[in-house]
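re: ur question from yesterday

yeah so i grabbed the chain u mentioned. its 162 aa long if i counted rite. heres the sequnce exactly as i have it in my notes:
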Amino acid sequence: MNTPPIDHGQNAQAESVNSSHADDTSARVPKGKHPVDLHVGKRLRHRRWMIGMTQQQLANAVGIKFQQIQKYESGANRVSASRLWDLSQALSVPVSFFFDGLSAADAKDGGDALSPDLFADKETLELVRAYYALEERPRQKLLDFTKSLSDSDSGESVNAVA
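ran it thru and got these structure tokens back, copy pasting raw so excuse formatting
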């Protein structure tokens, strides 16, 4: 008796995954870049900048070329799990750091992909770095001073705006 081979639906599943993956990304996401890859790349770049590390230094720390770091940061290349682990070790953050701030909706429709990037400006990053380089007491005084300027200029509290 000849029985036909059992199809476990692998081809159907692969087609389903491929077609649903195409539907998961929105027109707001640059073609070919998944929103999660963009988010991870953005977090990678922010952390590298925050600790003052160059792409070359990070690449050397994980044993790759700096061009690969550029591709990761732009979201052009997906970061593998093992490479993400290496990057987290080199940047002294947990792996979960790269996914902080990413919601299921962002991952599905690219909501985070084109949101304003507060840290895209190097001046902003320099300001944040300088702020965190201060000891606790001067940092708190600077924060209080900045809030007072904001309160007097706008008549609103900084917290009310945020």
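noticed a couple things. Residues 136-154 form the longest helix (19 residues). also The two ends are 73 Å apart (CA to CA).
anyway ttyl
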